[in-house]
Amino acid sequence: MERQARSHLADAGGQAALGMSGEERTGEAPPLGAENVFKRYGAVAALDGVSLVVRSGECLALVGESGSGKTTLLRCFNRLVDPDEGRVVVGGRDVMTLHPVELRRGIGYVPQDGGLLPHWRVGRNVELVPLLLGRPGAEQSANEALRIVGLDPTTFRDRWPRELSGGQRQRVAIARALAARPRVMLLDEPFGALDAITRAELQESFARLRAEREVGAFTSVLVTHDLREAFLLADRVAVLRRGRLEQMATPMDLIARPATAYVRALLERARITPADAAPNVARGAAPE
Ligand SMILES: Nc1ncnc2c1ncn2[C@@H]1O[C@H](COP(=O)(O)OP(=O)(O)O)[C@@H](O)[C@H]1O
Ligand SMILES: [Mg+2]
Protein backbone atom coordinates (compact mmCIF):
# COMPACT_ATOMS: atom_id res chain seq x y z
CA MET A 1 0.00 0.00 0.00
CA GLU A 2 2.88 2.24 0.89
CA ARG A 3 4.33 1.69 -2.56
CA GLN A 4 1.01 2.48 -4.18
CA ALA A 5 0.72 5.72 -2.24
CA ARG A 6 4.18 6.66 -3.33
CA SER A 7 3.44 5.96 -6.96
CA HIS A 8 0.50 8.35 -6.74
CA LEU A 9 2.90 11.01 -5.57
CA ALA A 10 5.17 10.16 -8.47
CA ASP A 11 2.20 10.46 -10.84
CA ALA A 12 1.55 13.86 -9.39
CA GLY A 13 4.97 14.96 -10.47
CA GLY A 14 6.34 14.36 -6.93
CA GLN A 15 10.04 14.75 -6.49
CA ALA A 16 10.97 15.50 -10.09
CA ALA A 17 8.74 18.54 -10.40
CA LEU A 18 9.92 20.14 -7.18
CA GLY A 19 12.74 21.88 -9.00
CA MET A 20 10.03 23.53 -11.10
CA SER A 21 12.52 24.59 -13.71
CA GLY A 22 10.08 23.62 -16.47
CA GLU A 23 7.49 26.02 -15.11
CA GLU A 24 10.06 28.73 -14.75
CA ARG A 25 11.31 28.22 -18.27
CA THR A 26 7.85 28.48 -19.77
CA GLY A 27 6.99 31.44 -17.56
CA GLU A 28 3.73 29.87 -16.43
CA ALA A 29 1.80 30.72 -13.27
CA PRO A 30 3.93 29.60 -10.36
CA PRO A 31 3.12 26.33 -8.64
CA LEU A 32 3.51 25.35 -5.02
CA GLY A 33 5.59 22.58 -3.57
CA ALA A 34 6.39 20.95 -0.27
CA GLU A 35 9.34 18.64 0.08
CA ASN A 36 9.56 16.36 3.09
CA VAL A 37 8.06 18.96 5.42
CA PHE A 38 7.99 18.35 9.18
CA LYS A 39 6.37 20.51 11.85
CA ARG A 40 6.09 19.50 15.48
CA TYR A 41 4.23 21.14 18.36
CA GLY A 42 5.60 19.50 21.48
CA ALA A 43 4.77 15.83 21.17
CA VAL A 44 2.40 16.39 18.24
CA ALA A 45 3.67 15.93 14.70
CA ALA A 46 1.37 18.37 12.86
CA LEU A 47 3.25 17.60 9.63
CA ASP A 48 5.19 14.38 9.45
CA GLY A 49 7.12 14.37 6.19
CA VAL A 50 4.76 15.84 3.60
CA SER A 51 5.77 16.12 -0.04
CA LEU A 52 3.50 17.38 -2.78
CA VAL A 53 3.37 19.62 -5.82
CA VAL A 54 0.46 21.79 -6.91
CA ARG A 55 0.40 22.36 -10.64
CA SER A 56 -0.03 25.68 -12.29
CA GLY A 57 -3.72 26.64 -12.49
CA GLU A 58 -4.79 23.66 -10.45
CA CYS A 59 -7.10 23.56 -7.45
CA LEU A 60 -5.85 21.08 -4.88
CA ALA A 61 -8.18 20.15 -2.04
CA LEU A 62 -6.61 19.23 1.29
CA VAL A 63 -8.93 16.92 3.16
CA GLY A 64 -8.65 15.02 6.42
CA GLU A 65 -10.19 14.98 9.83
CA SER A 66 -9.73 17.76 12.36
CA GLY A 67 -6.13 17.93 13.58
CA SER A 68 -4.68 16.12 10.56
CA GLY A 69 -2.44 19.08 9.65
CA LYS A 70 -4.42 20.81 6.89
CA THR A 71 -4.16 24.34 8.26
CA THR A 72 -0.53 23.87 9.24
CA LEU A 73 0.40 22.75 5.73
CA LEU A 74 -1.57 25.59 4.12
CA ARG A 75 0.16 28.16 6.31
CA CYS A 76 3.59 26.87 5.31
CA PHE A 77 2.97 28.33 1.85
CA ASN A 78 2.65 31.89 3.15
CA ARG A 79 5.09 31.47 6.01
CA LEU A 80 2.57 31.88 8.79
CA VAL A 81 4.19 28.58 9.77
CA ASP A 82 7.85 27.77 9.16
CA PRO A 83 8.60 24.04 9.05
CA ASP A 84 11.16 22.42 11.36
CA GLU A 85 12.51 20.49 8.41
CA GLY A 86 11.97 20.31 4.69
CA ARG A 87 11.50 22.81 1.92
CA VAL A 88 8.49 24.83 0.79
CA VAL A 89 8.49 26.33 -2.67
CA VAL A 90 6.30 29.08 -4.11
CA GLY A 91 6.75 30.18 -7.68
CA GLY A 92 9.86 28.08 -7.99
CA ARG A 93 11.54 29.76 -5.02
CA ASP A 94 12.29 28.42 -1.57
CA VAL A 95 10.03 30.50 0.70
CA MET A 96 12.81 30.84 3.28
CA THR A 97 14.60 33.07 0.78
CA LEU A 98 11.55 35.35 0.49
CA HIS A 99 10.46 38.09 2.86
CA PRO A 100 7.30 36.83 4.61
CA VAL A 101 5.40 40.08 4.11
CA GLU A 102 6.29 40.33 0.42
CA LEU A 103 5.43 36.68 -0.03
CA ARG A 104 2.00 37.16 1.60
CA ARG A 105 1.13 40.13 -0.58
CA GLY A 106 1.41 37.89 -3.62
CA ILE A 107 -0.87 35.21 -2.19
CA GLY A 108 -4.61 35.44 -1.59
CA TYR A 109 -5.38 33.95 1.81
CA VAL A 110 -8.78 33.20 3.29
CA PRO A 111 -8.16 32.15 6.90
CA GLN A 112 -10.48 29.74 8.66
CA ASP A 113 -12.27 32.53 10.55
CA GLY A 114 -12.40 34.93 7.58
CA GLY A 115 -9.94 37.23 9.29
CA LEU A 116 -11.63 40.56 8.52
CA LEU A 117 -10.42 43.50 10.57
CA PRO A 118 -13.48 44.38 12.69
CA HIS A 119 -12.67 48.09 13.01
CA TRP A 120 -12.33 48.55 9.26
CA ARG A 121 -15.27 48.91 6.90
CA VAL A 122 -15.77 46.30 4.16
CA GLY A 123 -14.25 48.51 1.44
CA ARG A 124 -11.05 49.13 3.36
CA ASN A 125 -10.72 45.46 4.28
CA VAL A 126 -10.98 44.44 0.63
CA GLU A 127 -8.70 47.22 -0.66
CA LEU A 128 -5.92 46.43 1.78
CA VAL A 129 -3.63 44.29 -0.36
CA PRO A 130 -3.89 46.29 -3.62
CA LEU A 131 -3.16 49.40 -1.53
CA LEU A 132 -0.17 47.80 0.15
CA LEU A 133 1.10 46.79 -3.27
CA GLY A 134 0.80 50.41 -4.37
CA ARG A 135 -1.49 49.45 -7.24
CA PRO A 136 -3.45 52.20 -8.93
CA GLY A 137 -7.22 51.75 -8.83
CA ALA A 138 -7.33 49.82 -5.55
CA GLU A 139 -10.91 50.94 -4.96
CA GLN A 140 -11.96 49.71 -8.37
CA SER A 141 -10.23 46.35 -7.82
CA ALA A 142 -12.02 46.02 -4.49
CA ASN A 143 -15.41 46.82 -6.03
CA GLU A 144 -14.82 44.30 -8.78
CA ALA A 145 -13.83 41.62 -6.27
CA LEU A 146 -16.99 42.33 -4.25
CA ARG A 147 -19.09 41.94 -7.39
CA ILE A 148 -17.40 38.63 -8.21
CA VAL A 149 -18.48 37.19 -4.84
CA GLY A 150 -22.00 38.50 -5.35
CA LEU A 151 -21.97 41.62 -3.17
CA ASP A 152 -23.04 44.99 -4.54
CA PRO A 153 -20.25 47.43 -3.63
CA THR A 154 -22.61 50.39 -3.22
CA THR A 155 -24.56 48.48 -0.59
CA PHE A 156 -21.68 46.81 1.20
CA ARG A 157 -18.53 48.96 0.93
CA ASP A 158 -19.37 51.14 3.91
CA ARG A 159 -20.64 48.44 6.21
CA TRP A 160 -18.76 47.22 9.25
CA PRO A 161 -17.98 43.49 9.39
CA ARG A 162 -20.35 43.18 12.37
CA GLU A 163 -23.19 44.40 10.14
CA LEU A 164 -22.85 41.38 7.87
CA SER A 165 -24.31 37.90 8.05
CA GLY A 166 -21.89 34.97 8.34
CA GLY A 167 -22.25 34.25 4.64
CA GLN A 168 -21.65 37.88 3.67
CA ARG A 169 -18.60 38.07 5.90
CA GLN A 170 -17.20 34.99 4.23
CA ARG A 171 -17.88 36.50 0.79
CA VAL A 172 -15.97 39.62 1.85
CA ALA A 173 -13.09 37.47 3.08
CA ILE A 174 -12.91 35.82 -0.33
CA ALA A 175 -13.20 39.19 -2.11
CA ARG A 176 -10.31 40.46 -0.04
CA ALA A 177 -8.16 37.51 -1.08
CA LEU A 178 -9.11 38.09 -4.74
CA ALA A 179 -8.74 41.86 -4.91
CA ALA A 180 -5.04 41.94 -5.76
CA ARG A 181 -5.47 39.31 -8.49
CA PRO A 182 -3.12 36.81 -6.89
CA ARG A 183 -1.67 33.92 -8.86
CA VAL A 184 -2.00 31.76 -5.77
CA MET A 185 -5.00 31.41 -3.45
CA LEU A 186 -4.96 29.60 -0.11
CA LEU A 187 -8.43 28.94 1.28
CA ASP A 188 -8.94 27.42 4.73
CA GLU A 189 -12.42 25.93 4.99
CA PRO A 190 -13.86 29.03 3.31
CA PHE A 191 -17.35 27.59 3.07
CA GLY A 192 -17.26 25.62 6.30
CA ALA A 193 -19.41 27.53 8.75
CA LEU A 194 -22.24 28.44 6.36
CA ASP A 195 -25.78 27.21 5.92
CA ALA A 196 -26.30 24.76 3.06
CA ILE A 197 -27.75 27.28 0.58
CA THR A 198 -25.10 29.92 1.13
CA ARG A 199 -22.41 27.27 0.93
CA ALA A 200 -23.74 25.97 -2.39
CA GLU A 201 -23.90 29.54 -3.75
CA LEU A 202 -20.34 30.32 -2.74
CA GLN A 203 -19.07 26.99 -4.04
CA GLU A 204 -20.68 27.87 -7.35
CA SER A 205 -19.07 31.32 -7.38
CA PHE A 206 -15.69 29.73 -6.77
CA ALA A 207 -16.22 27.14 -9.50
CA ARG A 208 -17.34 29.85 -11.93
CA LEU A 209 -14.38 32.00 -11.05
CA ARG A 210 -12.04 29.18 -11.95
CA ALA A 211 -13.96 28.11 -15.04
CA GLU A 212 -14.29 31.60 -16.47
CA ARG A 213 -10.82 32.61 -15.41
CA GLU A 214 -12.40 35.92 -14.44
CA VAL A 215 -9.33 36.86 -12.48
CA GLY A 216 -6.84 35.10 -14.71
CA ALA A 217 -5.35 31.70 -14.02
CA PHE A 218 -4.74 31.09 -10.37
CA THR A 219 -3.42 28.12 -8.49
CA SER A 220 -5.34 27.27 -5.36
CA VAL A 221 -5.22 25.09 -2.29
CA LEU A 222 -8.60 24.58 -0.69
CA VAL A 223 -8.75 23.10 2.80
CA THR A 224 -11.98 21.34 3.59
CA HIS A 225 -13.14 18.55 5.84
CA ASP A 226 -15.99 17.95 3.40
CA LEU A 227 -15.01 15.31 0.87
CA ARG A 228 -17.99 16.18 -1.32
CA GLU A 229 -16.86 19.78 -1.53
CA ALA A 230 -13.37 18.58 -2.47
CA PHE A 231 -14.79 16.39 -5.21
CA LEU A 232 -17.00 19.19 -6.47
CA LEU A 233 -14.34 21.87 -6.69
CA ALA A 234 -10.85 20.42 -6.92
CA ASP A 235 -8.79 18.93 -9.73
CA ARG A 236 -6.94 16.74 -7.27
CA VAL A 237 -7.49 15.77 -3.67
CA ALA A 238 -4.80 15.23 -1.04
CA VAL A 239 -5.82 13.16 1.97
CA LEU A 240 -3.95 14.01 5.15
CA ARG A 241 -3.93 11.84 8.22
CA ARG A 242 -1.93 12.63 11.35
CA GLY A 243 0.40 14.90 9.42
CA ARG A 244 1.05 12.42 6.65
CA LEU A 245 -0.15 12.35 3.09
CA GLU A 246 -2.18 9.19 2.61
CA GLN A 247 -2.88 9.78 -1.06
CA MET A 248 -3.02 12.55 -3.61
CA ALA A 249 -4.98 11.90 -6.78
CA THR A 250 -7.79 13.08 -9.02
CA PRO A 251 -11.28 12.38 -7.65
CA MET A 252 -11.66 9.65 -10.27
CA ASP A 253 -8.41 7.93 -9.27
CA LEU A 254 -9.17 8.26 -5.59
CA ILE A 255 -12.38 6.33 -6.09
CA ALA A 256 -10.96 3.82 -8.54
CA ARG A 257 -7.75 3.19 -6.63
CA PRO A 258 -7.87 4.22 -2.97
CA ALA A 259 -4.27 3.80 -1.82
CA THR A 260 -5.03 2.84 1.76
CA ALA A 261 -7.81 1.34 3.86
CA TYR A 262 -8.17 4.77 5.48
CA VAL A 263 -8.89 6.50 2.16
CA ARG A 264 -11.34 3.76 1.23
CA ALA A 265 -13.15 4.16 4.57
CA LEU A 266 -13.20 7.95 4.19
CA LEU A 267 -14.87 7.66 0.77
CA GLU A 268 -17.37 5.15 2.08
CA ARG A 269 -18.24 7.25 5.10
CA ALA A 270 -18.88 10.28 2.84
CA ARG A 271 -20.93 8.00 0.54
CA ILE A 272 -18.87 9.12 -2.43
CA THR A 273 -19.61 7.26 -5.67
CA PRO A 274 -18.03 7.43 -9.14
CA ALA A 275 -20.80 9.87 -10.14
CA ASP A 276 -19.29 12.39 -7.72
CA ALA A 277 -16.05 12.34 -9.67
CA ALA A 278 -17.68 13.14 -13.01
CA PRO A 279 -16.35 16.20 -14.83
CA ASN A 280 -18.13 19.33 -13.67
CA VAL A 281 -18.06 23.04 -14.27
CA ALA A 282 -15.21 23.53 -11.82
CA ARG A 283 -12.99 20.94 -13.36
CA GLY A 284 -14.19 21.39 -16.92
CA ALA A 285 -11.82 24.26 -17.57
CA ALA A 286 -8.96 22.87 -15.51
CA PRO A 287 -5.56 22.43 -17.10
CA GLU A 288 -4.58 19.01 -18.60
N1 LIG B 1 0.23 26.80 17.14
C1 LIG B 1 0.06 25.54 17.57
N2 LIG B 1 0.46 25.17 18.80
C2 LIG B 1 0.32 23.91 19.24
N3 LIG B 1 -0.25 22.93 18.53
C3 LIG B 1 -0.69 23.22 17.29
C4 LIG B 1 -0.56 24.54 16.75
N4 LIG B 1 -1.09 24.55 15.50
C5 LIG B 1 -1.52 23.29 15.28
N5 LIG B 1 -1.29 22.49 16.34
C6 LIG B 1 -1.62 21.07 16.44
O1 LIG B 1 -1.17 20.43 15.26
C7 LIG B 1 -2.13 19.48 14.78
C8 LIG B 1 -2.59 19.86 13.38
O2 LIG B 1 -3.36 21.06 13.46
P1 LIG B 1 -4.03 21.75 12.21
O3 LIG B 1 -3.02 21.90 11.14
O4 LIG B 1 -4.68 22.98 12.69
O5 LIG B 1 -5.10 20.65 11.78
P2 LIG B 1 -6.41 20.77 10.84
O6 LIG B 1 -6.38 22.10 10.16
O7 LIG B 1 -6.31 19.61 9.93
O8 LIG B 1 -7.58 20.63 11.77
C9 LIG B 1 -3.23 19.46 15.82
O9 LIG B 1 -2.98 18.43 16.74
C10 LIG B 1 -3.11 20.83 16.48
O10 LIG B 1 -3.59 20.79 17.80
MG1 LIG C 1 -7.75 23.70 10.22
Keywords:
single chain, 288 residues, alpha/beta, Rossmann fold, six-stranded mixed sheet, 14 helices, 10 strands, 40% helix, disordered N terminus, disordered C terminus, binds adenosine-5'-diphosphate, binds magnesium ion
- Percent helix range: 25-40%
Strand content: 15-25%
Bound molecules: adenosine-5'-diphosphate, magnesium ion
Shape: globular
CATH class category label of the domain at 2-106 and 218-284: Alpha Beta
Radius of gyration: 18 Å
Mean model confidence by pLDDT: 85
CATH architecture of the domain at 2-106 and 218-284: 3-Layer(aba) Sandwich
SSE sequence, one letter per element: HHHEEEHEEHEHHHHEHEHEEHHH
Structural class: alpha/beta
- The CATH topology of the domain at 2-106 and 218-284 comes to Rossmann fold
Summarize the biggest pleated sheet.
6 strands, mixed
The CATH superfamily of the domain at 2-106 and 218-284 is identified as: P-loop containing nucleotide triphosphate hydrolases
Instruction: Report strand order across the widest sheet.
Output: 6-7-8-3-9-10
Q: How many helical elements?
A: 14
Extract low-pLDDT stretches.
Answer: 1-27, 284-288
Please provide the count of β strands.
10
Span between termini: 27 Å
Give me the secondary-structure topology.
Layout: H1 2-11, H2 14-17, H3 21-26, E1 32-41, E2 44-54, E3 59-63, H4 70-76, E4 85-90, E5 93-94, H5 100-105, E6 107-110, H6 122-132, H7 138-148, H8 153-156, H9 166-178, E7 184-188, H10 196-212, E8 219-223, H11 227-233, E9 236-241, E10 244-249, H12 251-256, H13 261-269, H14 281-284
Parallel strand pairs: 3-8, 3-9, 6-7, 7-8
Antiparallel strand pairs: 1-2, 1-4, 4-5, 9-10
Helix pairs in contact: 6-7, 6-9, 7-9
Adenosine-5'-diphosphate binds at residues 41, 44, 46, 64, 66-72.
